[in-house]
Design goal:
alpha/beta; 19 helices; membrane
């Protein structure tokens, strides 16, 4: 199958295959594309890289996602620099494309990508990768595809923080019968409207249309018509909004006008000027959104570390996993062994941070700490204190800011002599919203979505939500579906309460 087509125009599609794939992933799609005469003016090319699902002890070296992304950068710079690029990617290919775009934006490099169409991409990881990585020898990009892998979590956070969707047209195609990548991973953002679901197709045949009328090709064809400069993309307005923007779960600059600032935001902004921060409070009150908003406004470089997947570990093990995650983010193919001394752990940590630090402030957002109250939690806090001290001497021109978020109030586990700790980390309670703030949120959503709730309805919602903005947004989502739209308000409130509990 021909893998390139040059045209006199400036528009080019770059196809990227997935794990253990090759250009064969796109053979049928390219065959249909070549035969579709209305798109003859569009050029295309295929970016290929070595990959396989299993690797033995003496097999060919497998690259990390960061290295494959660097290869894509070189590929585009040498063959398609200055062109208007649409990337169409399958599976792992979508992760590689997103990493290339994110790194380009963070370092203010031109990436030339104005459209991104993803077929069954594991944006939040794949369970098969968790299993396969246990039996595959030193296989970096397979390990990085594991569910809740820190690189993917960090990329998802950066994708929102950098507001990529305001400058690039993006769409995800979900394979409804995919046994490799879950729907939640293909579209990890709650309420995301930029998705298509093809229920009858699986992970492999989602890219293999039979003809030009096949939905698998029509999605590509329609996306191309929206992407090209002479189409609706030229009128793409980031100020346009949808229900998913108003009812956002993840903060970005796109949804800033739907963010309800509270007194707590001023508190954490003031604290961040001179200290590290630890927010604690119940789930669903916006701790992560507040911290990501702070990171965005301060224009800090950002790494997101979610620790929930590490169960039954010690405080030392948890710090070792944080260090491994930072190494992974830096593209360092090294896993620290268990049983390190505290001294060696500190040295490894400083080296990992140094590899990420530059002249831009570096924020490390740490969430979902899986330790029970008691000695190990106390020891973890002590490690955090020591690491904040070490960060102060890593790079003269780079400040490292630790941002912790937890449901548990860590001050209940602190030792009596904590004056120095309080100098380095400010512990801030981030509690349930006040009724006035909740009323402001409800009124804003009610007005923008024309829901039509009366003042009495608003009062009932305020009294039922227990100060949880998550509860409020779940309620409004329920009112927008076919069944919820006709259900009485009290019934909807009861349903949301049950969902929150479960």
């Amino acid at each position: 199958m021909q893998t390139t087509r040059s045209t006199r125009g400036n528009d080019v599609i770059i196809f990227i295959h997935g794990l253990s794939g090759s250009s064969g992933t796109w053979d049928q799609m390219l065959k249909v594309l070549i035969g579709y005469r209305d798109l003859d003016h569009i050029g295309y090319d295929c970016y290929q890289y070595p990959t396989q699902l299993w690797r033995g002890p003496f097999g060919k070296k497998m690259s990390s996602i960061q290295e494959i992304s660097e290869g894509l950068k070189t590929f585009i710079a040498s063959k398609h620099k200055g062109k208007n690029i649409l990337i169409v990617a399958h599976s792992l290919g979508g992760v590689i494309a997103r990493h290339y775009i994110l790194e380009s934006m963070k370092f203010k490099r031109d990436h030339y990508v104005t459209g991104l169409l993803l077929y069954a991409s594991p944006l939040a990881g794949a369970g098969l990768a968790n299993l396969a990585s246990r039996f595959s020898w030193r296989h970096p990009h397979l390990k990085q595809l594991s569910v809740k892998a820190d690189l993917l979590t960090s990329m998802n956070g950066e994708w929102v923080a950098l507001d990529v969707a305001s400058s690039i047209k993006v769409r995800s195609v979900i394979a409804g019968s995919d046994s490799v990548v879950s729907r939640e991973s293909s579209s990890p953002y709650v309420g995301d409207q930029t998705t298509d679901t093809l229920i009858e197709y699986g992970h492999i045949n989602i890219t293999k249309p039979d003809n030009a009328e096949d939905l698998r090709f029509k999605i590509l064809r329609d996306f191309i018509s929206q992407w090209t400069p002479d189409s609706s993309l030229s009128g793409f307005n980031p100020n346009n909004f949808s229900a998913s923007d108003i009812l956002f779960d993840a903060y970005s600059t796109r949804v800033e006008k739907f963010y309800v600032p509270r007194a707590e935001d001023q508190v954490i902004a003031a604290a961040a000027n001179a200290s590290n921060i630890w927010l604690s409070g119940p789930p669903g009150v916006g701790k992560t959104a507040a911290l990501k908003r702070l990171i965005t406004k301060e224009k800090w470089k950002f790494h997101h570390l979610i620790l929930d997947s590490f169960r039954d570990v010690t405080a030392a093990d948890l710090m070792r996993e944080i260090c491994n995650a930072l190494n992974e983010s830096a593209g360092v193919d090294k896993v620290l062994p268990r049983g390190l001394t505290d001294s060696d752990l500190v040295k490894a940590f400083k080296k990992a941070i140094a590899s990420l630090a530059n002249n831009q402030a570096l924020a490390l957002l740490v969430e979902e700490i899986p330790l029970a109250s008691g000695a190990e939690y106390n020891k973890f806090i002590d490690y955090c204190y020591r690491m904040t001290l070490e960060c102060e001497s890593i790079h003269d021109n780079c400040r490292v800011i630790w941002l912790f978020s937890s449901i548990k109030d860590p001050t209940k586990d602190l030792k009596e002599c904590t004056a120095k700790l309080y100098e380095k980390i400010q512990f801030i309670g981030f509690g349930a919203w006040r009724d006035t703030d909740i009323t402001t949120l409800i009124s804003m959503i009610n007005t923008n979505l024309s829901t039509g709730f009366s003042p009495e309805d608003v009062g009932l919602i305020v009294s039922s939500c227990n100060g949880s903005p998550r509860f409020v947004k779940m309620l409004f989502r329920s009112t927008r579906n076919e069944i919820g739209g006709s259900a009485p308000l009290r019934e909807l409130l009861g349903n949301v309460k049950r969902d929150v509990v479960t």
